[in-house]
Specification:
- The chain has three domains: about 30 residues, no CATH class; about 300 residues, no CATH class; about 60 residues, no CATH class.
- Helices cover about 15% and strands about 25% of the residues.
- The chain has seven helices and 18 strands.
Length: about 425
Amino acid sequence: MPYQNPHLYNDPAGYRTGTATPSTIGPQLVDFMFIKKALAEQAKEIVFSNMSSTIEIPKHTGTAIKRYVDVLMLDDKNINDQGIDAAGQTGALSKNPNGNLYGSSRDIGVIADRLPALGEQGGRVNRVGFKRLTIQGTMQKYGFFYEFTQDALNFDTQADLLQNMSREAVRGATQLQEAMLQKDLLDNCGTVYVPGTGFADWDTDTATSLKASVDDTAIPTYKDFMKFKLMLDDLRVPGSTSMFTGTRYIDTKTIPSARFAFISNALLPMLEQVKDFNNQPAWVPVEQYAAGGYTHPKEVGKIGNFRFVVVPEALYWGGAGAAPGQNSIHRATNNKLDVYPILVIGEDAFTTIGFQTNGRDGKIKVMTKMPGLETASFDDPYGSRGFTSMQWWYGFLAQRPERLACMYTVAEL
């Protein structure tokens, strides 16, 4: 009969297969090592909040903020009935029909016809008018809470249970603020371009119908990016971008001669295949030019004037496009193509609105009541439960919506 040791911990072979039998000396009460510090998930990165300052609304002034925008005299948006042309006429027959001379036109014929020439005797001619627009943003309060019990704090295996919940709640609130800001940026794009059709518009009211026109041909080419660039140039969207990389007082970097384009990583396979006019790869990976100056931490490459930044939590419109083709290789929801934005944010395009902030970002107000006398009530006479609540104010103001530009595309499966 083979020797048997009665003081074995367990049957090693059986332990590996899940059929271990306890030692003959008696069962083991502890058969694992417990690492007390929980493994926390990596915090989701903040991208858009680093591009905005915050306007603080003072007390007793309501929850909305309004601001004038003075339109340039020579601008198509400056349409008024205050103008008189060189012949002293107004209305449809006037050579100054909109009160802005030639507006934004760059047609030599139109400009020559509407130059404000004066005769020897002058007179009441060449009167122009002016227009101002009013923009508005509204602030809203947001928040959530969670509960815990005294028994959970006393007996849960994690000694730092409350600390971990607090950390994850702050991360969640920060992520919510980032998602709200990203949604507002996309919803307020004043310049929209759809590749494939080449259709573009500068009116946010038509954004929904433009999404519906996105089909399997909405794959950007090098020519599309050149057209997109020219659109932004015509709208005088600055080619530099400032980003806060530290506090609101120091460490603000400006990227000259480039426009950041924020994308989902789902678009990378498509963008890296773009060819230039010489049928050569147009994509330049960031490692080939990073040494030439500051790059965004999530920057991955460039095509022409656009430098692409991958947003890990990039939003998209599920099922907002047209029906996919029979052999479509693009992502879809409920038999409608998903629409992915390539978002360009021009300098001074937007700001966020807050209440009792530090002037740089939103302030999260945290309130915690521990179990005990502080929470004892008719609903909980023993004071066994505690809670933590988080709340903040958030609002969005599109200062120059034409500087928020979107190219609507599809993404490969």
